[in-house]
Amino acid sequence: MSTNATGALPLDGLRVLELGHIVAGPSAGLLFADLGADVIKVERPGEGDQSRGMPAGTAANFHFLNRNKRSIALDLKGSSAGRELFLRLVATADVVIDNFAHGAVEALGLGYDVLAGVNPRVIYLALKGFLPGPYEARPLLDELAQMSAGLAFMTGPRGQPLRAGASVVDVGAAAYGVIAVLAALQQRARTGRGQKITSGLYETTVFLVGQWLASYAATGEASVPMPEILQGTRMGWGIYQLFEAADGEQVFIGVTSNGHWERFCTAFGLDDLLADDRLSDNGKRVAARSWLPARVAEEMRRYPSGEICERLERARVPWAPLRRPDQLVDDPHLNAAGQFVDTPLPGGGRGKLPKLPVRSTAFEMGLRRPAPELGEHTREILEELGLEPVEIDALEARKVIATS
User: Fold this and answer.
1) Which residues are part of the catalytic machinery?
2) Pick from 186, 40, 69: which is nearest to 123 by CA?
3) CA angle, 399 then 401 then 404, to 5°
4) Measured over all CA atoms, what is the biggest interatomic distance in the chain, rounded to whole angstroms?
5) pLDDT at residue 2, rounded to an integer
6) Partners of 239 in beta bridges
7) First CA to last CA across the chain, in angstroms?
8) Average confidence (pLDDT) over 217-224
9) CB-hemisphere CA count at 13 Å for 140?
């Protein structure tokens, strides 16, 4: 892929300490790391991030969310010396990510107030289940947030709530938190002071279902699960749904303007529908949903999926094939756009894993370093703090730290 992006990454020179595991904290760390920050993943000796030890498919996720980071294995729970080393690191940091349970870091004497005393410029991002309030001490996970804040209700059929097919709450809370941190860094440039930011999984989910809260505010009607609201009707379009092709594959067609409708009918020779005054605008097409989608479905079953897609592409009508995630690795657009990172995986294999979904004309993101082994950079980081090799050896002997 050709590019003019030759500059330094925008967060080069920023240091981030990541106290996180599984998805939410590592996702926030990944955003910083891919954009050039020096992200130091602070892990417990012997175990590290919990996802390191998960079954193969899940463990591979560690290599997706932790690329471009360094790892230091540091005992914060059982060693005052480990906590002192962490505070020395905090003195060099711009951002600290805390993705542990409510009150866990504070119980170690390493909460925001303590860290701000060491480094008043530090920005502290707490990724928690809830924002401060009556629920804040309650443990929460992505799926629980989806259940309790309406997302699972909206996704599955009535009586069969269904979590989204990805960890959208963990990743969303991380992304919103990072946006707030970047804003806080701008503010720090003016004030010289850091601050604490909290991003909540529960509140992230509430934000994601905000469109349905807006609908309720406008109508006073109780929310209805999306499978119960016919495709298209729920978004206000006459033709906006999946259709089955002759080969059994499914194609989503979205007719969202009169121009789309005219070109769609022309592409498939549907002169009778194009001439039908009952279908001359979107409002009429919505009113005709008792029969129109069935007529279009009958027509689509005459063609193989490839031909449907080709006709829709030529007609400039919105369309999309129904795909599994594993099919994306062969997607011609993603490959031509260089949107995959060839990434080392556990056991010596390699995988095509996605880059951040943004592109710049000034810089290009990629794999600067694979996901670290537990404690891989412990010695290197401590040497940067000024510790001598003999001191590091002594700390390792006392199990305050671990190196790989």
Assistant:
1) 170
2) 186
3) 105
4) 86
5) 37
6) 255
7) 36
8) 94
9) 28
Task: Give the residue carrying structure tokens 């894993």.
Answer: 353
Point out which residues pair with 95 in neighbouring strands.
16, 123
pLDDT, tens digit, 9 for 90 and up, residues 190-220: 999 999 999 999 999 999 999 999 999 999 9
pLDDT band for 55, please (50, 70, 90 cuts): confident
- Helix pair angle (210-219, 201-208), 10° resolution: 50
- Structure tokens belonging to residue 364: 């290009």
The interaxial angle of helices 24-34 and 56-65, nearest 10 deg, is: 40
Residues 94-107: tens digit of each pLDDT: 999 999 999 999 99
pLDDT over 60 at 232, yes or no: no
Closest by alpha carbon to 13, among 71, 86, 92?
A: 92
Angle between helices 258-267 and 305-315 (to 10 degrees): 130
Distance separating alpha carbons of residues 25 and 216, to the nearest angstrom: 33
Q: Which residues is 74 bridged to in the sheet?
A: 401
Distance (Å, rounded) from C-alpha 198 to C-alpha 128? 7
Q: What is the DSSP letter of 371?
A: P
Q: Rounded distance, CA 243 to CA 119, Å?
A: 58
> What is the band of 349 on the pLDDT scale with cuts at 50, 70, 90?
confident
In residues, how long is the chain?
404
Tell me whether strands 239-244 and 250-255 are parallel, antiparallel or unpaired. antiparallel
Q: What is the pLDDT of residue 6?
A: 60
For 42, residues 6+ apart whose C-beta sits below 8 A from its C-beta are 17, 18, 19, 72, 74, 76, 86, 89
Residue 153 pLDDT more than 70?
Answer: yes
Structure tokens at 27: 């996702």
> Burial letters for 341-350: b for 16+ Cβ neighbours within 10 Å, e otherwise?
bebebeeeee
Model-level pTM?
Answer: 0.93
**Of the candidates 197, 31, 174, 193, the residue with the CA atom closest to the CA atom of residue 124:** 197
